[in-house]
Amino acid sequence: MSGVWFFKNNGVIRLVENPAAESNGGGSRRKVLVHLPSGQVVSSYSSLEQILNGLGWERYYGGDPDLFQFHKQSSIDLISLPRDFSKFNSVYMYDIVIKNPNIFHVRDM
Predict the structure, then answer these.
(1) Would you say the C-alpha torsion 40, 83, 92, 7 has a positive or negative sign?
(2) Helix, strand or coil for residue 107?
(3) pTM of the predicted model, to two decimals?
(4) Which of 6, 81, 96, 108 is the most buried (most CB within 10 A)?
(5) Edge-to-edge strand order for the sheet containing 31-35?
(6) What is the distance between the alpha carbons of residues 100 and 94, in angstroms, rounded to a whole number?
(7) Beta-carbon neighbour count of residue 35 at 10 Å?
(8) What are 19-40's pLDDT values in tens digits?
(9) What is the DSSP secondary-structure string of 36-99?
C-alpha cells in the first residue's frame, strides 16, 4: 500500500494513491525558484549558473556526467541538478534555497 495519508480535523483519514492527480482538478501546482534580490523567476540553467557564480559557487566537473553540479570553495556543500531542466523540480529548488539562505525562494506558480 503506497501513497499519501490525508488526515482531517474530524479524525477521518484516507489514503490517496496518486495525490498529484487529485489536487487542483488533475494537476498539481507547479513550483518556481525565485531569485529574491532581482525578483526574477529562474527559467534556465544559464540564468541560475550566473546567479550562483555571483554567490561564489563554481561548476564542478568531477561528478556524475548526468548532473550539473556546483560547489563552493568555502564549504563542503554540493548542489546537484539534473542535466535536463524539465526535470528541475521542487526538491532541487529547496536544496538551493537551503544552501543560499535569503537569496532564493520557492513559490507556487
Answers:
(1) positive
(2) strand
(3) 0.72
(4) 96
(5) 40-41, 31-35, 104-108
(6) 10
(7) 19
(8) 555 555 545 678 999 999 999 9
(9) TTTTEE--SHHHHHHHHHHTTEEE--SS-TTEEEEEETTSS-EEEEESSGGG--HHHHHHHHHH
